[in-house]
Amino acid sequence: MSDSTHIPTHYHLVGDIGGTNARFAFVPPGAHRPTALAKYLVADFSCFDDVMARLLADWRQLGLPEAGPDKTCFAVAAPPHLDTISFTNSPWRFDRALLERHLQRSSITIINDFAAVARALPALTDSDVEQIGAGASSAGAPMVAIGPGTGTGVATVVYDSNENPLVIGGEGGHVDYAPISDMEFDVLKRLRARFGRVSIERLLCGAGIVNIYQALGDIRGLPAELISPEDIGTAAQHDNPLAAEAMAMFFAVLGSSAGNLALTTGAMGGVFIAGGIAPRYIDLLRRSDFRARFLAKGRFADYNTNIGTFVITHEDPGLLGAALHLGERL
Asked: How far apart are CA 287 and CA 313, in angstroms?
């Protein structure tokens, strides 16, 4: 919690609530840049009500007005349109009506977490991203975000006739996985035996790294002793052969999926990799076939050549996007 933060008398609340972290910030009326308020680990709270109770207690400690925020926008890792929000990769859930009671008089807006990331894309600066390979970002053209983290998020931003950004959300992390190499086909066979249908999220997230690593260990006849994506990523950075192969496949699959999104959306504004994995292991990403697989689109390889690919290094584009979305609704 930010214990030295100045809180204005009137403010709006934004949250970015995923499968691993729940982040909150306040936004003074008329502003669009959030100021960090609190960050909690999802695993430390058994339910959403508990984290809201903690947030309210922290508000009071900071001297927040008892009346609560004027407006609230939460970006959630879940389908946002239902009355009961059930998170995809955590046991948390909440009812909109109960949330309104928690926040007293606040007007509540719920959006998908990657819709928030996509809304932030036009506001990112060069210092907020790391470019991977060549290509460019054309102003006013569609931009797409894909994010391997606790799960896999996808969203696109386009522009209307007045050049205002419009976000197209969805559940693109749950599209079917399509292997390219023979080894990827072998991995798919093992994942299909475990899960039945295999979406790209079965590979492109933290648990997906473990899935790839274990499948490769089975194929290679090698012991897959590491049990967390962090351990696998660290071992890959220290040239552990099985871990390095798993991370190389992870980023190759990410490149193929990002390239497919570029073709599907016409993302001449760029393809942006969000989530916590890519920034942490950007050295492995740069050494991988990510960009080659992004470009490997047969007759349309030249099309993707002109499209830039970027890793988002901004601390929390979800909070930024939620603040911008909220500002457009005031």
From this structure: 18
d(CA 104, CA 321): 24
Structural contact between residues 254 and 128, judged by C-beta atoms closer than 8 angstroms: no
Element (H, E) at 207: helix 206-220
Length of the chain as a residue count: 330
Q: Tell me the per-residue pLDDT of 258-313, one tens digit each, with 9 for 90 and over.
A: 999 999 999 999 999 999 999 999 999 999 999 999 999 999 999 999 999 999 99
CA distance 10 to 80: 26
At residue 80, what is the residue type? P
Please, which residues have CB within 8 angstroms of residue 122's CB and are 6 or more apart in sequence?
143, 157, 165
For residue 143, the cross-strand partners are 157
> Measured between alpha carbons, how far is 151 from 204 in angstroms, rounded to an integer?
7
Contact 297, 263 (CB under 8 A): yes
Note the pLDDT tens digit of each residue in 50-100: 998 898 888 778 776 666 678 899 999 888 888 899 887 788 999 888 888
